[in-house]
Amino acid sequence: MNKMIYLSGISLLFVMPVAAQQVTADTAAIMKEHTLSNVTITSRKATMRSLKGALNGKDISRDELFKAACCNLGESFVTNPSVDVNYTDATTGAKQVKMLGLSGTYVQMLTENLPNFRGAALPYGLGYVPGNWMKSMQVSKGNSSVKNGYEAMTGQINVEYVKPEDEKGLSLNLYGSTMGKVEANADGNIHINGNKNLSTEILAHFENNWNHSDGNGDGFQDDPQVKQFNLQNRWFWKAGNYMLHAGLSLLKEDRTNGQVAGALPLYGGTAPYRIDIGTQRYEAYMKHAVILNSAHGTNIALLANASLHKQDALYGIKQYDVNEKSAYASLVFETDFTPKHNLSAGLSLNHDYLRQSLTLPLGAVAANYGNLYPMERGLESETTPGAYVQYTYNLNNHLVAMAGLRLDHSNVYGTFFTPRFHLKWMPTHLLTVRLSAGKGYRSPHALAENNYLMASGRRLIIDNLKQEAAWNYGSSLSFVIPIGKQALKLNADYYYTHFLEQAIIDYDSNPEELHITNLNGKSYSHTFQIDASYLFFNSLELTAAYRYNLVKTTYGQQLLWKPLQSRYKALLTASYKTPLALWQFDATAVLNGGGRMPQPYTMASGNLSWQPNFKAYPQLNAQVTRYFKHFSVYVGGENLTNYKQHNPIIGFSNPWANSFEPTMVYGPVQGAMAYIGIRINLGQRL
């Protein structure tokens, strides 16, 4: 089956130019026979680099998101050279984003500029945002504005949902893949009594993955079975100078994985090794805004959200339950003294409460497997009030300087300052220069944020962790070079992240332990990236990018390359849309560089547990979309090179031993996959 998918994908790439030429010829014939009285030309840029603001960021529209299946937020970065999404292990299906060569814990996740998916929601949060719910996404590198808090260290990702006040309509999406996954999405809004000042919408999502396949024959499912229900209701109200956005959402997810057949000894009986994770999540948000003076952009806003995240998880014989309550509120005042001078100031309050329970049934027997934990993390509670001020000087968008300072006080870690500075200089319309420097902090919740580690048979040790702190410095050059009728867009940037305090996962020091401990030495990341894009013939857009990561951390007494991290990434994307926009062809080719594996150990057989390094590997994704008046059909494939990590589960023959290790994942754990879907749009909704 995988070979057929692979050949189909390769054939698809060869068919694309032929099909495009055929459609172009047909279109030309039609144009000769018809005269149009009115012509409307619409130009859409799927990804736009912001040249106005001081932050180094990109605005990603739905057009860019829909160049791939984009089932959820975790699958929305296929064509993005700055963001990687990787599996954390080969059993739970947990994913994390990586920016500037560092894990997603240092990327601040926002939904409509409100912090979200923190703590226990972090390992699986990328799957909680269906792709068809997203209207756009903003991705920025390095430290961001102090408005949104102190947590962003390497970047910020903000998701904008479709809005209740958008043109009313209904959208449906159905999706199915060869991996046994089906998905259905719906979003619709109404303007009550025909009045755009009062609108509501419903967003609904269902997915089910019933796949039981075991492609590599290790006795474990290649992909977890996931059944998810996700529902959200959003409201918008405008009365004079007052505006309100508010909403409620609920999510229920069941995630299971483990051995597909057979039984291994357990407590003198027989039972397969299973992982069962049940999640219930509830969210509420509200955003009040009052415009005091529209001429000067003077307004005051109250923003707040709260979440309840309950998760019950069984990893073999380890039972981990967590009940997390999070709340965030921010009172913001903003004004433009003059067109050149802007001031923003505000107060914020952040609260996290985690009640955790970790149990090992028949503990005396469990000791034989080396799975005892020296401490139980129990209750974690932190309340952090804060205040910020930010000043921006803007000289006709040619020179923009933004300086901000936060003062926060944690009842756990005390008082801390967060300074940040961004500068943009545009000496000509062909060149933009940006510089940034700033500090970031975050409070680690070791067990909640890394609960996938409990799938490992190793003894898990968690120290008393300090608050993480890091400086980030960045610079970028953006060129717009006229070539023919179009412009070549060239961008180069460099970022350096230096940790003062860091919670690290030490895989290296002891082959029988996973140790989450405080940094004792150096830890830093150097990242250089260059990318270029050009639009040929007003219809074919090519983007090429190369990124190099130099990431090192002290493990034990040694400064080592960060394990399971590719040292470079090369990306090439091509997107072609026929003249009448009836067909669209998209392809993305990626070469992920090699890197270091954690320190291997010698097994009883005399062989190494795994190789000390992993090699570079390629990936290829492609999609064809056919547009009709009210719907579109898309067919595509992912990982068409069929590369997958060989035996990602170490010690799969005995999952009850402390040598069982499914977290040594650096690349894809699934082979080639094909999918088909349909998007239906009724009304004017985009």
Summed over residues and divided by their number, the pLDDT gives a mean of: 87
The coarse silhouette is: globular
Radius of gyration: 25 Å
Q: Using the coordinates shown, work out and report the CATH topology.
A: Maltoporin, Chain A
Terminal residue distance: 36 Å
- What is the CATH top level name? Mainly Beta
- State the helix count: 4
Key features of this structure:
single chain; 686 residues; mainly beta; Maltoporin, Chain A
Q: Could you please describe the fold and organization of this structure?
A:
- This protein is mainly beta and 686 residues long.
- It has a single domain (2-32, 46-683), classed as Maltoporin, Chain A.
- 6% of the residues lie in helices and 55% in strands.
- It has a 22-stranded antiparallel β-barrel. The chain has a six-stranded mixed beta sheet with strand order 1-2-8-9-6-7.
- The radius of gyration is 25 Å and the shape is globular.
- 41% of the residues are buried.
- Residues 1-44, 265-269 and 362-376 have low confidence and may be disordered.
Quick overview:
By secondary structure, the protein is mainly β. The protein has one domain: TonB-dependent receptor, beta-barrel domain (Maltoporin, Chain A, Beta Barrel).
